Amino acid sequence: MALALCFFPLRAPMLSHSPRASRRLGSGRAILSVALLLLFAGTPLAEEQAPRAHLEEGLFDFGTVRTGAKVQHTVPLQNLGSSDLAILDMQFSVPALTVRAPRVVPARGEAPLLLELDTSGFRGEVQAHVVLRTNDPQTPKLELHVRGRVESLVDLLPRPAIFVSAFRWEVEERESAIAMVNRDERPLEIVAMRQEGEGFTARVKLVEAGRRYELAVKLRGSGPSGMGLGRITVSTNQGETIAIPVFILLRDKIYVSPLEIDLGQISLQQVERQPDVLKFRTETLYVYKHRGEGFQIQVDSSPSFVTIEKTPPAGPGAMVNIPRQGPTAVFELKVVLSPEKLEPGKLEGTIRIRTNDPEVPEIRVPVRGELK
Asked: Which residues contact 279 (CB under 8 A, 6 or more apart)?
């Protein structure tokens, strides 16, 4: 508006037959026309070149359903702009939630987003969401929320998941179990059981006919060390399909936590503006040895883009008494990013740790991240 107003005179121009005055008046009118054209036409033209994402609704409430039901819902996604709207990425809060959608919605077009939630692994109130990342400059992220309640005729006690951990040499003595208790008047029967995951074995034992079962898990001694996730799916004569997550941890005499260092995505632009932001990207790695009196380590090498701070800095590891494990030597390694060594692109490397244990002379920990 300032551009246009600056060409309006404060008082009406005097009429003149002078050619010079006519040229000045004609020139002023031309400049005014250009200014008005820029004022009223510039903004819409810029807006018409971009996609505009619009969701008809942002919340799907599926009410109350029985465990194992797959609830579905369709949400229209509109593109109100005049260039293609692209769905670049989707991020889900729970793996049981899926969305089927086209990659591109044409200008002035509409496309369905099909949401599906598998309720097999849920009990009680459910809250989930998905974030869609688009190429809309004004709305780069869209959120869809899902909520409801899942009820079951079978209670899982004391919790709806199984956790089991053991050292490799004690897997036969360690077992973790939950109870499956019938809440219905009809007798309960388990008609099928399916296991997903190779690091454990599962069994079902009848405790009370028609009323109660026991589901137990043991680790495989031949499995890989570290943490793992599996699932047991049970089908009953009541028509329910119940998914039970299984969290496992198999430890060797010497082990590390976590098994790898994930630095995530780092913004180069943000690092240049705020170098101190890298302090918040520091990761911690722990090295343990069961009954490790006199256990020592030395970091042989690490990726060039990080430095390692070891505690204790010298000598054997600190001895701590870990519940259900006993006296254990532990070292803390701080993995700190080196700003002067960071380069755009993938960050990949390995931390190599030498130990004084002849059975496990070296430990390797992968490091990964991305500088964008």
From this structure: none
Q: What is the pTM of this model?
A: 0.63
At 198-250, the pLDDT tens digits run 899 999 999 999 999 999 999 999 888 888 999 999 999 988 889 999 999 99
Q: At 284, phi and psi to the nearest 5? A: -120, 130
Q: For residue 66, which phi and psi values (nearest 5 degrees)?
A: -85, 145
Q: Is 325 left (phi over 0), alpha (psi -120 to 50) or beta?
A: alpha
Strands of the sheet containing 70-79, edge to edge, are 53-55, 70-79, 110-118, 97-100
Q: Angle at Cα 315 formed by Cα 293 and Cα 302, nearest 5°?
A: 110
Range list of β-strands (E), 137-219:
141-151, 154-157, 162-167, 176-182, 190-196, 200-208, 212-219
Q: Are 71 and 65 in contact (CB under 8 A)?
A: yes
Closest among 330, 318, 341 to 266, alpha carbons compared: 341
Q: At 316, phi and psi to the nearest 5?
A: -70, 165
Q: Rounded to a whole number, what is the largest CA-CA distance in the chain?
A: 113
